[in-house]
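# nightly structure sweep
# worker-07 picked up a monomer target from the shared queue
# config: single-sequence mode, recycle default, output format = structure tokens
# input follows
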Amino acid sequence: MTDEPKTPEPTTSAEFFARGLKSAQLGQPDAAARDFEEAAWLDPHNPTIQFNLGTAYLSMGFFEQAVVNLDRAIEMQPHNSDALGNRAVARTALGQDELAEQDIKSAIELGAPPDGIHAVVEYVKQRRQPVE
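# output follows
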């Protein structure tokens, strides 16, 4: 047994968000998503929370939910090139190539690196499951 002080459970949106970021940095997107969900429940109009929640779902392969949360982030912060780029990746994974191309174009216009976004999208295209 250790006598280390126990970290108190989060109670505010900021505390849940901070714990979610730590989980994301540790490569635990499922734990991150749980905390980001709590943060979003407490602060539903925060684009940063919605972006990180969408990104966590993207990392877990939950592409439909990733698009939902990234849509929310983009509605609140239309010039977020990272959110547009991540939504392009999720849409590509879903086989929504035309919508993904629109997101890619917008993200690049807002400063996203073209080589990076194109490389990720091509990688996803090569690995997505064929539509039956």
